[in-house]
Amino acid sequence: MAVLQEYKCPCCGGAIAFDSGAQKMVCPYCDTEFEMEVLAAYDTALKEEPTEEMNWENSGGSQWQEGEAEGLCTYVCKSCGGEIVAEETTAATACPYCGNPVVLMGRLAGSLKPDLVIPFKLDKKAAKAALKEHFSGKRLLPKIFKDENHIDEIKGIYVPFWLFDASADARIRYRAIRVRKWSDHHFDYTETSHFSVTRGGTLAFSNVPVDGSAKMTDDLMESIEPFDLSEAVDFQTAYLAGYLADKYDVDSEQSMQRANERIRKSTEDAFAATVQGYMTVMPEASGIRLQKGSVKYALLPVWLLNTSWNGQSYTFAMNGQTGKMVGDLPVDKAAYNRWLFGLTGAIGMVLYAASWLLWLL
Questions:
Q1: How many separate domains does the chain show?
Q2: Do 326 and 336 belong to one domain?
Q3: Domain match, 325 and 338 both
Q4: What does 218-246 look like in DSSP terms, one character per residue?
Q5: First-to-last CA distance in the chain?
Q6: 15 SS3 class
Q7: Kind and range of the H or E element at 140?
Q8: 3-class secondary structure, 253
Q9: What's this model's pTM, rounded to 2 decimal places?
Q10: Which of 33, 68, 142, 239 could crosslink 332 through cysteines, CB 3.0-4.6 Å?
Q11: With the C-alpha atoms ordered 306, 307, 312, 314, is the resulting torsion angle positive or negative?
């Protein structure tokens, strides 16, 4: 059984947590604020705290069957003594009995410690406001969804990310076509010219993010990018107090393929943008080699909001640093049909007007 770690206020003994607005540790009971410079001292003190070992012999209960206990971890809250059951990858949470924020030190004490963390800049109130703003202006969103949809769960979570740095040496060959047309008194002429176009060079990539959590879909996490990594600070466990945090369960080796895909796509797009002046451009051959590759382990802030309406669940994610909100929304079929009918009618009128003008000419 692992022990929960929390931060006590030296003034009143209450549990303190990181305040995203003040960018300090704040005690919610006596309102005392603590500068972030003292966090290193907190971490040192935490590591030096003695652990208890109190063993009991108990014949009660039955034995777990093979596979039944996989993925279960239990922890004891130091404030109230409540027992918490969490997933193996949970690194920070809140006690469901007394509400105190806790950090599961055993979960983060694995083979790798995070290098960086971006502290939350936006709180739960901002996440709710961003969701409301996300609903506004959506003409095809059912009005009843705005009225009846309610938030079932909202949680701030530090998501594990791998940040990849590399230099990409690339050489790409394209097949391009340029068409020239002209006429004289007798004929219309078309000249089609074919070209082989080559581009080569080196691009530097820094902090290409790939989420290291199997529970988070890559598309959802990439949709709330970018994160401003210039605001990342050296990891300290005190930043996790008051939020959920996951330890990676997809390691850097497994994440390299996704990083390669992102680097390859960005390189191809950057080179293709330089091939201009042609009617069509098609890539024929591509060679990309990575050099000086390195990877860092970081925890990045994300707000997750789960809502329900009409028997269905909807998940929204917000960047806890920038406020960018993403998530799928239902479509009002009647409004969609009206919009489609109006669009079809508008296109028909334009085509009719064009044909009438051609007839006049």
A1: 3
A2: no
A3: no
A4: HHHHHHTPPP-GGG-EE--GGGGTTSEEE
A5: 87
A6: strand
A7: none
A8: helix
A9: 0.70
A10: 142
A11: negative
- Strand, coil or helix: 256: helix
What would the pLDDT profile of 119-143 be if each residue is shown by its tens digit? 999 998 999 888 888 777 656 565 6
Q: Bridge partners of 334? A: none
Give one DSSP letter per residue of 94-139, joined into a string: E-TTT--EEEEHHHHSSS---SEE----S-HHHHHHHHHHHHTT-T
Q: How far is CA 282 from CA 50, 79, 172, 269, 271, in A?
A: 65, 64, 11, 12, 12
Q: Are residues 88 and 199 in the same domain?
A: no
Cβ atoms 27, 242 nearer than 8 A: no
Tokens 């802030």, residue?
A: 301
Domain that holds residue 361: 332-361
Distance of CA 89 to the CA centre of its chain: 17
Q: Is-contact 195 275, C-beta < 8 A?
A: no
Reading the block at residue 81, the tokens are 């003594």
The answer as to whether 115 is a domain residue is no
pLDDT digits (tens, 9 = 90+) for 83-108: 454 555 565 565 544 556 666 655 55
275 is a domain residue: yes
Helices (H), the chain: 39-48, 105-108, 124-135, 143-148, 218-223, 252-272, 333-360
